[in-house]
Specification:
The chain is α/β, with parallel strands linked by helices. The chain has nine helices and seven strands, in the order ααβαβαββαβααβααβ.
């Protein structure tokens, strides 16, 4: 089992959004997610590892039918208050989703793979329950911020001690191993760890910068192309019996 956020983790996570700089980061990541996923109003989405429901609120504002899943009851308690009964919430693991195949138009895993036990299995499950597109939001292994978090974990106990970080190339490799050569697009943001001014915002929004694979937050969209399996069909064929026995 991966790392499940406890009571203090959930409170710290929610408190994190009250810092103006952190809110700027979260808004930037949320804007990237919506711009890349391009969800249609009236469609459905499953947010796997929904945490305190911050991303569910973004989907609700876009007119989506939302479902959230998280293994932490403390995260779900806060999420329930944040979404105010506007989303279906479930407790469960990303590697074993309690939903039928193709139950949702979209699925999202936003800073979720970092804390699961089996990232590949979690992605397989997300691809199973979604039928149109999958959004992956991940902390970048090669970003300055990612390196800082890992170094800090050497000297202090943080939630990132339990996290595994990814790169654009690693995520693409796992997706290809599951789905084959499906369409994948990616961007990164938050290239400047401490800046949140107007100039840095303009730079962050530029296409060439977002195509740099070293931003702190990776956004990746996978188009789920249906795959079909065939099996031989048995064709009934009546056997005609002869009247005369064959002499031997």
């Amino acid at each position: 089992m991966g790392y499940i956020f406890n009571f203090n983790d959930a409170l710290s996570y929610e408190q994190w959004f009250k810092n103006p700089h952190n809110k700027f980061i979260a808004d930037f990541e949320g804007r990237l997610m919506l711009n890349m996923l391009k969800p249609m109003s009236g469609d459905s989405i499953l947010d796997i590892g929904c945490g305190t429901g911050r991303n569910l609120l973004l989907f609700i504002e876009k007119g989506l039918h939302t479902t959230g899943l998280d293994p932490s009851p403390y995260m779900l308690d806060i999420a329930s208050k944040n979404v105010n009964n506007r989303s279906d919430l479930h407790r469960g693991l990303a590697e074993d989703l309690p939903f039928d195949d193709n139950s949702f138009n979209y699925a999202s895993l936003i800073t979720t793979l970092e804390f699961v036990e089996d990232p590949k299995k979690a992605l397989e499950e997300a691809c199973r329950v979604a039928k149109d597109r999958l959004f992956i939001g991940a902390l970048n292994r090669y970003a300055i911020k990612g390196i800082q978090r890992r170094i800090k974990g050497i000297f202090f106990s943080t939630v990132y001690n339990h996290a595994q970080f990814f790169s654009v190339w690693e995520l693409k490799q796992v997706i290809r191993s599951i789905l084959g050569d499906v369409p994948i697009s990616w961007r990164t943001v938050c290239h400047f760890p401490t800046a949140s001014g107007r100039i840095s915002r303009s730079i962050e929004q530029s296409g060439p910068v977002q195509r740099c694979p070293f931003g702190a937050f990776i956004g990746m969209v996978v188009t789920l192309v249906p795959r079909f399996k065939t099996r031989p069909m048995l064709i009934p064929y009546p056997v005609k019996q002869t009247k005369d026995a064959v002499a031997g």
